[in-house]
Amino acid sequence: MTSHLVTGIGELVTHDERWGGPLQDAALVAEDGRVVWVGRAADAPPADRATDLGGAAVVPGFVDSHTHLVFAGDRSAEFEARMAGTPYTGGGIATTVAATRAASDDELRARLRALADEARAQGTTTLEIKSGYGLDVEHERRLLRLAREVTDETTFLGAHVVPPGIDRGDYLALVTGPMLAACAPHARWADVFCEPGSPVAFDGDEARAVLGAARDAGLGLRVHGNQLGPGPGVRLAVELGAASVDHCTFLGDTDVAALAEGDTVATLLPGVEFSTRSPYPDARRLLDAGVEVALASDCNPGTCFSTSMPLMIALAVREMGMTSAEAVRAATLGGARALRRDDLGHLRVGARAHLAVLDAPSHRHLAYRPGVPIARGMVL
């Protein structure tokens, strides 16, 4: 094994409680891709090779635990209409499904890899990627197969919406039967868009059926819930032990209490609210209740075409009542917990050596300098 010393770190965020906060004038050593030593630069042990960051701040690599990166087509006109006041209903997903089905593997692969590279250039070192733009057996399996080329964190989302012209009961049987069987070998997770108020999404009973079948197939559970209005998504996710319930825009007291009492992570997606003119989730309410919160991009062509986790941090601080430290934690350790990963999202000894290096003296600059490309990923 070759050891690698990273020194010259002006500020190091580790999420290691024994340090009591960020380390100043810090260093770390990695061997075989894992952190083996963290501390003051003056105390650093010798290593086979060294990189001096010249005073840059370092945080754990961002863990983007909710994306839809395998797709074709363009929905910029839909975005422009929303900026003019047209509400989001989920109906535009069918447009992306048609374009994605028509695209070749190479076309989908090229865009997927370009978006993954774009995310990593901004400090994201772990991506979750969902299907959901195929909505039949062949294309859902294809999307997951392609996603597996860039990440192990793949999610079957055949229950994204009910395609036009298909009976709801027939489609639910397809998702929980042949489609699930074909897709499960290519997925770690299953997800469902649970929004009873939407004509295309799934109600609580339908979502329960999807999640139950997925659990029986050996997949972990995730839920799109409470995005468009109040509903059963959050409570269903907690009841079934889902790793994460995502969006969480419209929450009642019972939803917050359920999250606080369970171990389901509330994943907030502020880029969606930015791109749909919807109200932002109340992160402060969740944090004050003791809920584990994650931030993710939800990068997709319809409601947030951004791979930038620094932007999500800035929006969380500006619009959702989070401090810079809380937002960075949610974008790193929170995201890792939303994926049930204890080897990511922190820089304690034993963690994967995934870093986000900032062209700045402090993690605060991620919110302080929105839109400026100050972060880059480094995997040792």
UniProtKB/TrEMBL annotation:
Binding site for 4-imidazolone-5-propanoate: R75, Y133, H160, Q227, T303
Pathway: Amino-acid degradation; L-histidine degradation into L-glutamate; N-formimidoyl-L-glutamate from L-histidine: step 3/3
Cofactor: Zn(2+); Fe(3+)
Domain annotation Amidohydrolase-related: ranges: 58-361
Free-text remark on how the cofactor is bound: Binds 1 zinc or iron ion per subunit.
Keywords linked to the UniProt accession: Cytoplasm, Histidine metabolism, Hydrolase, Iron, Metal-binding, Zinc
GO molecular function: imidazolonepropionase activity
Binding-site positions, N-formimidoyl-L-glutamate: Y133, N300, G302
Keyword Chloroplast: no
Family matches, as NCBIfam families: hutI (TIGR01224)
Name of this chain's protein: Imidazolonepropionase
Organism expressing this protein natively: Cellulomonas edaphi
Organism classification: Bacteria, Bacillati, Actinomycetota, Actinomycetes, Micrococcales
Gene name as annotated: hutI
